[in-house]
Amino acid sequence: MVDATTRFFEDLDRRGYEPLLEKSSGTLRFDLHEGARTTHWLLRIDHGRLQVSQEDLEADTVIGTSPALFDDVVAGREHGLAAVLRGDMTVSGDPRLVVQVERIFPSSPDARGPRRRFQREVR
Question: 3-state class of 60 per DSSP?
């Protein structure tokens, strides 16, 4: 069974281009820590063009959290920026990329407003 995190990154990689990130460029590495094991996801953004891998390479921004919390973020059950502010996620490097990339994460299923409507239309 594929978890929500794997589905999220595979979808980004298949999509190849995200118009919400057309003004963004940089690399983000997501380090998902569970005990002594760390799973890495590397997201390269070049003016909206996306490329995903599981490489442990240098990145402009590194986000660290637990796999369970990240599953909740990519499923829309948790808000990533709120988790950062609570200290449940760590960010090192360029924090602007975190704010820019936050746009592509799903919002809560019961959220209202233009962002939620746009996400439904895109899918």
Answer: coil
What pTM was estimated for this model as a whole?
0.84
| 3-class secondary structure, 14 | helix
Helix axes 67-74, 4-15, angle to 10 degrees: 50
Tens-digit pLDDT profile for residues 76-115: 999 999 999 999 999 999 989 999 999 998 876 665 655 5
Q: Within the chain, what is the greatest distance between any pair of CA atoms?
A: 41
Distance CA 22, CA 20 (A): 6
Pairing of strands 37-46, 61-65: unpaired
Looking at CATH, the fold of the domain delimited by 4-122 is given as Nonspecific Lipid-transfer Protein; Chain A (3.30.1050)
Distance, CA of 26 to CA of 34 (rounded, Å):
26
